[in-house]
Amino acid sequence: MTTANLIDVLLVEDNNDDAELTIRELKKYHLANNLHHAKDGEEALKFIFDNKDADGNYLVKMPKLILLDIKMPKLNGIELLEKLKQDDRTKLIPVVILTSSNEDPDIKKCYELGANSYIVKPVHFSGFAESIKNIGLYWILLNQSPI
Amino acid sequence: MVTGFNKKILVLFAILAIAVILAGIATYKTQQNVKDTEAWVTHTDKVIAETKEATTRLKDIVLAARGFVITGDSLFLKSLDTTKAILHTHLQNLNYLTAGNSTQKAKIDSLKKLIIFRSNFSDSVIQLRKEKGFAIAKKKFSTINGEHYLEDIMQLHNEIITTENNLLKTRELTNTKNYQHFLLSFYLLFAGTLILLAITIFIVWQNNLMRNKIELSLIEYKSFFNNNSDLCLITNKNGYFETANPQFEATLGYTQKEITTTPLVKFLHPDDVAATMERYKEHIYSSNFNYEQRFINRYRKKDGSYIWLEWHSLPNLSSEKIYSIARDITERKQTEEILQNTLKDLANYKYALNESSIIVITNTHGNIEHVNDNFCKISKFSREELIGQNMRIVNSGYHPKEFFTSLWNSISKGEIWKGEIRDCAKDKSIFWIYTVIVPLQDDKNITQQYLAIMINFTARKEAEFQLDYLNKELQAFTYSVSHDLRAPLRGITGFTSILEEEYAAKLDDEAKRITQVIKNNATRMGILIDDLLAFSRLGRQPVSKRIFSTNTLVKEIIEEQTSEKTHHSIEWQIQTLPESFGDISLMRQVWINLISNAIKYSSHNNHPIIEIGSFRQNNKWVFFIRDNGVGFDDKYKEKLFKVFQRLHAANEFEGTGIGLANVAKIITKHGGEVWAEGAINKGATFYFTIPDNQNQII
């Protein structure tokens, strides 16, 4: 099995506006150079697992960080998290859950499944931007990845 | 027995007395006869003597006459007259003595005639001698006549004496016989007297014996009468008590004199007079009534109070008296009354319980012994189908095995079990019953039965399920709202910020002000959404109470609230507060809200004063927080605690109008109350109570 370490951040977010704001903020600190945006869980799965090299072998893409929204169509964030953490190839990838509300009943479940962090997206932009900046700097630059 | 014996004795005694009297009479008569006989003996002697005397005198006369005739000497005639007189007297005596005996009298008469005749012959001889001399006289004298008369006289004389002697003999014989009779009578009399004496002594002895017995039994019975703890009475036919025992006096408080001189009707309770007097008349006048029938009535005591008496009476028809024994049953009666009332209460409770609840009584194995109509109705089984069946007949299979194990563990230990049970009726319909199972124990505290009191709350349970469902829906809705409403807001603020940052050079001041307004509004809307979510979350959050220090909590909050901004000018007046019993995180929100409000609304004052304290009212602690801020219009105070209701403009004091609604919600959830007092520019005071620990039903 070969791994392809082509990207730093995989952003799984169905809301384009949120995605754009996130990408913009990460770009300010040059953290979005190798960023892929998947619109939902299914797309993210495909992005990670459904790759072949020139020889026709399957490749697993291993981002340094996955920013994962919970509420998404098709495969939602929790289901995706579950799949990633159950798979030996992907279970070590740090996953930060981004959610709109602290009302979320799934916070506990996310931690149980192995989420590394859980961030409530603030409504006001400066807070949001600050959060994204901190996440990016910590997980991509500071954090020593196990991979 | 005694009467019969006495009668016999009396009869015997009478017979003997009559015999003694008869013997006495006989003795008397015999004695009279003896006396008579003796008189007759004397009489006979007299008759004989008189007869002899008379013949002797006649002989004297004859001899005198003879002497004169022979001698002529008159000396012979000297005592002749005297002798004649004596003879005459004797003859008269004889006449008198024989007056009662005709035979003897005839003989005496004949003797008298002959004697007088002979006497007269002598006289005639004497006369002849005197006148004619001796010869003639001798001649005359020598005639046979003279001698013949004398012989007759002597014969008659002898006859009379013989007769009289015979008569005497007969009479003496009679006398002896009479004497023997007398002796017999006397002996009989003596014997009879002796027997009478013996009988009398016997009777007296017997009587004495009997009297002693009677006296002894009288003493015994009297001691029963006097020492009886029951009331004993003898009532006469005039409606008075003749005698009452000391217990009667003691119980009712009357003297013996009062008891015996007052008509019995005066002692009775007015309501009992008719029945008592009817009973009394039955006793006195009627011979056929039920002696065993106890009778109860009320008697008035000297002090005017009444006591209950239970009577057992026996009439004596011959003496027309009633012998009664009464027992003071007032206490029993009162106990009975209490018991009656208790029974009535119990019956009422039972009725009420039966009407209001579903009742099942089972044995210790849970087998049904009794069900009321309500249980039949809800279970749709008939009573006959249920009796004897185990309670499992209505088990719906909903509760796990442990549920019933725990239930049985409780009730088999004699504990009351309370809980909600889902049961299944005959037609498989489901019903929920709130059940209280009470183990019914005997006097040795051994459970004999289980009483299940149940309330049908199927409808409420269904509503609860409905509510639960709605709550879940609401939660989903809230979740959705918090996600979906917040994302666009982030978009608005985010892109407005980008506009400000990246296109700053192209925006003039007005445009910059407008972008700021957009951001402010979006932010405010985000806060509103957060507050609303927090408020709804409060409703679902369970309250977990414990005792905590109010002083510490308040102190911490004041430090937090004053450190971030410049509130150092505030004058705090904080009393020592009692401990609270509540959910500390919820109560923290209450205090945060109230303290931050006080800071906020007094911030316009140059010298803000905030006072926090407590006082005791209606057995509860009342906490209050008072400020000297802008206050509020008292007529809108009801709106204070409503969601999104504000009494001040948003630009005057920031806020969403949800803080006090949260306060009210939390206090209500604790079972307390919250209210406020205030006036415009006169400050505001907020009060709240939460129940004490001991009053709390958890």
Overview features:
heterodimer; A: 147 residues; alpha/beta; Rossmann fold; five-stranded parallel β-sheet; three-stranded mixed β-sheet; B: 698 residues; alpha+beta; Four Helix Bundle (Hemerythrin (Met), subunit A); Beta-Lactamase; 5 domains; five-stranded antiparallel β-sheet; 16% strand
Describe what you observe in this structure:
The complex is a heterodimer of chains A (147) and B (698). With 147 residues, chain A is of the alpha/beta class. Chain A has one domain (2-142): 3-Layer(aba) Sandwich (Rossmann fold), CATH 3.40.50.2300. Helices cover 39% and strands 21% of the residues of chain A. Chain A has five helices and eight strands, in the order ββαβαβββαβαβα. In chain A, strand 4 and strand 5 (58-61) form a beta hairpin. The longest helix of chain A is centred in the C-terminal third of the chain and has 18 residues, at 125-142. With 698 residues, chain B is an alpha+beta fold. Chain B folds into five domains: 2-199, Four Helix Bundle (Hemerythrin (Met), subunit A); 230-336, PAS domain (Beta-Lactamase), CATH 3.30.450; 357-456, PAS domain (Beta-Lactamase), CATH 3.30.450; 464-523; 544-689, 2-Layer Sandwich (Heat Shock Protein 90), CATH 3.30.565.10. Chain B has helices spanning 2-71, 80-97, 102-131, 134-142, 144-227, 246-252, 256-261, 273-285, 330-356, 373-379, 383-386, 401-412, 458-502, 509-540, 550-564, 584-601, 659-669, and strands spanning 231-235, 241-244, 295-300, 306-316, 321-328, 358-363, 368-371, 417-424, 430-441, 447-456, 546-548, 571-574, 580-582, 609-617, 620-627, 673-678, 684-689. In chain B, the strands form four sheets. A five-stranded antiparallel β-sheet of chain B has the order 2-1-5-4-3. In chain B, strands 7-6-10-9-8 form a five-stranded antiparallel β-sheet, with helices on both faces. The two termini of chain B are 88 Å apart. The model of chain B has no long low-confidence stretch (mean pLDDT 84). The chains are: A alpha/beta (147), B alpha+beta (698). At the A-B interface, helix 1 and helix 5 of A face helix 13 and helix 14 of B.
